[in-house]
Amino acid sequence: MDRPEVDELTPPDRTLMGPGPSDVHPRVLRAMSTPLVGHLDPAFVEIMDETQELLRYAFRTDNQWTIPVSGTGSASMEAAIGNLVEPGETMLVPTNGYFGGRMADMARRAGGEVVEVDAPWGEPLDPADVKNAFDEHQPDVFGFVHAETSTGVRQPSVPELTSIAHDHDAYVIADCVTSLGGVELRVDDWDVDVAYSGPQKCLSCPPGASPLTLNDRAMDKVLGREEPSRSWYLDLSLLEGYWGDERAYHHTAPITNVYALRESLRFVAEEGIEQRWDRHRDVAGALKAGVEAMGLEMNAADEFWLPSLNAVRVPDGVTDGAVIESLLANYDVEIAGGLGDLSGDIFRIGCMGHSARPGNVSFLVSALGETLREQGADVDVGAGTETVASEL
Predict the structure, then answer these.
(1) Which residues constitute the signal peptide according to the record (predicted)?
(2) β-strand 171-175 against 141-145: which pairing, if any?
(3) CATH number for the 26-270 domain, one of 3.40.640.10, 3.40.50.300, 3.40.190.10, 3.40.50.10170?
(4) If exposure means fewest CB atoms within 10 Å of the residue's CB, which of 17, 33, 67, 307 is most exposed?
(5) What is the pLDDT of residue 122?
(6) What CA–CA distance (Å, rounded) separates 267 from 25?
(7) In the chain, which ranges are continuous DSSP H helix?
(8) Average model confidence (pLDDT) for the chain?
(9) Helix (H, G, I), strand (E, B) or coil at 294
(10) Tens of pLDDT along 128-184?
(11) Where do the structural domains in the chain lie, given as residue ranges?
(12) pLDDT at 1 over 90
């Protein structure tokens, strides 16, 4: 085999306004270039402690068991479901988006039985339907998606959902991948047992170390399992030895990713979590107002609009793929199309973390409007850009 000749790495400089990853602040990138230390080095142990404390602040929790899982957001998702769902147990999952389906798949792989609570794609779960599903099926675990990335829907009334589950002695797992650090989330106040997220969305951190938090009730269930988790790597009873007080070897942590997560969480603390929620709502609100003034429609109703992920209906006369490709080629702007039931029907436009800036939104609305007009859509680009300017 011939020796390969590969040029120096020169990726394009994109404006990331899709469903993730989001733009990363230079400070976070610099943190990743700092010297490597061992994963059991006392200096790194101190960094681990700091990262855990910063994660507790972002999750709004006092949970001792709050860690970054080594892997992408799907790893923290599988750690949550694979540890809490035991073989033979029943998990209730939603049908109103792509990631409820992923919950179901992971629960089955963990040996669980799956039952569903139905809602259309583009709408949140109705607490009455959740209660009826509990009365009928008596599930052991209930999973819901707080911020559904595939539909642009924010699940309201979370305390009502957790109350229903706990009245039936069930455990609650919340998918917070597109809400942590960008949308109001209060793990303790809302009585959520387990919450997981990814770093590359509202935290604006490269993927690789993914947030997870469990309360004492959930961790007691994990530690009391009759048989171990089917995943050795994601077995929280083993990870307890590394991220708990003992700091014993389990695996080599992704050290530079932990550096990055710590720095991105420092941004959250410096800005203030509630101020950060306000910024996402205000900047994304300008984006929403701009695309609506242009003549486009949002997929989600106003009462459960998700600021961090704006699902915009594809207008007549264009195809989503052509618009997405043109934005990337001509403007270096990334957005995405729909998934599952909404494939071809929506654009998914992120407004997350470091990407949630006025300049990005102004640029995106202008570029999207011009691209849609070039593709034959009936849009008022001027009204869109003027509205954004007045909102910001």
Answers:
(1) none
(2) parallel
(3) 3.40.640.10
(4) 33
(5) 93
(6) 9
(7) 26-32, 42-59, 73-84, 98-109, 127-137, 158-167, 216-223, 236-243, 255-271, 273-294, 320-331, 358-374, 381-391
(8) 97
(9) helix
(10) 999 999 999 999 999 999 999 999 999 999 999 999 999 999 999 999 999 999 999
(11) 26-270, 273-391
(12) no
Q: Which helix (H) or strand (E) segment is 334 a member of?
A: strand 333-334
CB 313 within 8 A of CB 296: yes
**Burial level of 162, CB count in 10 A (0-12/13-18/19+)?**
buried
What span, in angstroms and rounded, lies between the C-alpha atoms of 41 and 192?
33
CA distance 364 to 150: 20
The closest of 149, 60, 141 to 107, measured between CA atoms, is 141
Residues 6+ apart with CB under 8 A from 244: none
Other CB atoms within 10 A of residue 79 CB = 28
How confident is the model at residue 284, as a pLDDT? 98
Q: Quick: pLDDT tens for 368-377.
A: 999 999 999 9
Q: What is the pLDDT of residues 171-228, one digit of tens each?
A: 999 999 999 999 999 999 999 999 999 999 999 999 999 999 999 999 999 999 999 9
- Residue 42: how many other CB atoms lie within 10 Å: 10
- Beta-bridged to residue 110, according to DSSP, are none
Identify which of 384, 356, 309, 350 has the alpha carbon closest to the alpha carbon of residue 151: 309
Longest dimension (CA), the chain: 65
What is the CB-side half-sphere exposure of residue 132 using CA atoms within 13 A? 8
Question: CA 298, CA 347: separation in Å to the nearest integer?
Answer: 9
Residue 175, token pair as written in the block: 């998918």
Query: Does residue 90 sit in helix, strand or coil?
Result: strand
Fold classification of 273-391 is Aspartate Aminotransferase, domain 1 (3.90.1150)
| pTM of the full structure | 0.97
